[in-house]
Structures are given as structure tokens and as C-alpha cells.
Amino acid sequence: MQSLAAQRFETFWSEVASLYSDQKLAIIGSDKPLNFGCLKNKHLCHFISNAKDSLKEAKTLGFIISTILNRSYDIIILELTKSRETNLGLMALAEEYITDGGKIVINGDNQIGVKSFVKNISNHWPAEKTVIKKKGRIVLYKKTTPSFGRWKKYRDFCINRDGYYTRCDMFSPKEVDKGSKKLTSVFSSKLFGEVADLGAGWGYLSKEALRLNDKITRVTLFESNHSAYLASKKNIDDKRATFRWASLENIRNLKLRFNHVICNPPFHSGHTKDIDLLRSFIFYSSRLINRRGSVWMVFVSGIYLESELKDHFDNIKILYKDNHYFVCQLLKPKIKRREYDK
Ligand SMILES: C[S@@+](CC[C@H](N)C(=O)[O-])C[C@H]1O[C@@H](n2cnc3c(N)ncnc32)[C@H](O)[C@@H]1O
Question: Quick one: which of 264, 279, 261, 281 has its CA closest to 330?
């Protein structure tokens, strides 16, 4: 089933496609390349994203992929994200990379505030076409006078109130997540050897793990969001840290088995709740530790049932619990012996 944004874009594009068939086109803001399935000549379109999985999917569909805009374009399609600051930063970027007289298309759902966003843009550039449909709107603008340079600041990595480099397009950029704090409070002096940080974000858990556990020989940070991966490299200056821009699905065949996994698992894809994503983190964590290893995880209460952890681990120790979070140590992964012997 196509998303509302995809249906809206398809209607819009069917009305204008003939005007823009061989123009240089880029898509920014979206983590759903399938939303642009109706575009012909995908091999001429650039799909720009931070998300490893989205880029992989876009490549499979035939798009040219990149994490950055690196040339000028005749048309840039901006699909609004749920973060207003990210959208402002992307608009500044689009303005910078669009040719003079080029077009910018903004597509967004009502629930993420598309109406007020495009109202702001329409104060500066003429809206040439608007389609209101499927609980959102899509507007085509012609670039005229430079107007959005002041929003470039949202593309910078800045120090947040807890002293870490972050940017608005990643998890909990303004401050350390409360759940992550709960997790670090239980693993002091308990970690050693090889540690994996799954969904490492901008590096808070790993930085604390290294500070609080001098018996760690290496922490490998796995993160699928490219900005967060870059921020974590800025935040951690420790020879024991190794950084991997990778999606969990691609690390399942890793031969190395870890002594510990630390993780605050995601449970959203974009703005929708995604419990399967959370489950996959639990599953893969059970595959990455050695037989005597353990997984240290924090969960938001009510999102996930403690009892479900028994599907993948024989020994579950709840180390902390309040109305909002529970933190656990998961031991004895349930894996057939043969899998370990490989
Ligand atoms: C709840 S956040 C935790 C971030 C960080 N560990 C912390 O404690 O602040 C989950 C992280 O998982 C990342 N993530 C989501 N899906 C992923 C995947 N398939 N592979 C790797 N990382 C993923 C997200 O980008 C996000 O940074």
C-alpha cells in the first residue's frame, strides 16, 4: 500500500512530468525511495539520504544515491521530515544547489505541519502549483531571490546542552536520552573485552562505556544514520572505538562474537511506530554475543513486554525499573549450538 505522500506525489507528477522529463533532479528529506516509484529515468535522479537502508533500496530501484548534494539540479524535491529544523536546513541546502530559475517541490503531510512550512516559503518565492490531497499538500516553487541562507545553521553539528556534537536530523539531539542514562547507570565496571553498540546514535552509550570500563579493549559502534555516525566520530576520541556506518541487517553475518552488546533500541521508522524494528534489534543482539556474553538494553515501559525477551534469551535480569523505563541484562542467547561452531 502506497503512503499518502507517495499517492500525493504521483498525482502531482502525472500533471507536470512532461515539462520536466530530462531535467537534473534530486530528492532530499525522504527515507522512502518507493514514494518516487512513478519517476521515469531513475538513473538520472539523485536520491539523497542519511539512512543506509533507504540508500540501498533507492539503488535497487535504479536511483543514483548519495548522502550529500554535490552538483546543481534543475529540480529538487523536498519531502518534509518530522523535524522542523531539519526541514529548514534542507530548504537552505535546496536553495544552494538549485540552478537559477530552477524548481523546488515541497511535499508534506498535514500532521508534520506542511501548511505553515509552505506558507513561510510562499512569502519569498512564488508558488506555481499546489495540490492539496491525501491529508497533506505539495507545492511547486520557482527559485527567485536568495531567501533561506539563514537556515544553513541547521546543517551544522553543534554542541548540545550535555556537551556532545549533534544535529537535528538524529535521535535526541538536544540532550542525552533519559533511557540511555538509565542504561549507563547499570554497566559501570561490568563491561570488558569486545563491545558492540547497536544503533549507537551520536555515541553517548559508547563514550560512557569507555569512560566507566577500563577493561574494554574495543567498542564497535554500529549506526545506520550517516549524520549520527559522523557526530559520534566527533564525540569520541578514544583508540578503542571503531565506527561503522551500517544497518543492523548487514552486520548479522559478522564472524566476531562480542563479550557485550549495549543498546537503546529504536522503535520508530520515520514517524511511525515500528515494533518489528525493535524486535530485530533484540534478535540480532542475541546473535552477536558469545555464549558467556551479555546484552545490556533499555526499554520504554509499555512498548515491549519483558516476557517476549524469553524468545531469544534464557536468562533475563531486570536491573532497573520505574514507570517509564526498564533496563535489563540478557544472558544465555537461545541459539542452536551449530550456529556458534560456524
Ligand atoms: C533510540 S536511538 C539510540 C541512540 C544512542 N544509542 C543513544 O543511546 O542515544 C536508536 C538508534 O538506532 C539507529 N538505527 C535505527 N535503525 C537502525 C538499523 N537498522 N541499523 C542500525 N542502526 C539503526 C537510529 O538511527 C538511532 O540512532
Answer: 261
- How far is C-alpha 109 from the geometric centre of its chain's CA atoms? 19
The CA distances from residue 338 to 297, 334, 335, in Å, are 26, 12, 8
Give the closest residue (by CA) to ligand 1 atom 13: 199
Cell numbers linked to 110: 498535514
Across 202-222, average pLDDT: 98
Backbone torsions φ then ψ of 337, nearest 5 degrees: -50, -40
Ligand 1: which residue has its CA nearest to atom 24? 199
* Residue with cell string 532497573: 320
Class of the 157-341 domain?
Answer: alpha beta
Q: Tell me, in angstroms, the distance from the centre of ligand 1 to residue 221's CA.
A: 10
Q: What is the DSSP letter of 51?
A: B
Closest ligand 1 atom to 51 CA: 25
**What's the pTM?**
0.94
**Any idea which architecture 4-154 has in CATH?**
3-Layer(aba) Sandwich (3.40)
Q: Is the CB of 264 under 6 A from ligand 1?
A: yes
211 beta partners: none
Given a contact cutoff of 8 angstroms between Cβ atoms, the answer to whether 316 and 281 are in contact is no
Binding site membership of 166 for ligand 1 (Cβ less than 6 Å): no
12 lines ligand 1 (CB under 6 A): no
Nearest to 277 by CA among 334, 209, 224: 224
Ligand 1, closest atom to CA 179?
8
Closest CA to 79 of 151, 150, 8, 171: 8
Q: What is the pLDDT of residues 246-281, one digit of tens each?
A: 998 877 566 668 999 999 999 887 677 888 999 999
Q: Which residue ranges make up each domain of the chain?
A: 4-154, 157-341
Look-up of cell digits 542475541: 286
> Does residue 199's CB lie within 6 angstroms of at least one atom of ligand 1?
yes
Residue identifier of the C-alpha nearest atom 2 of ligand 1: 266
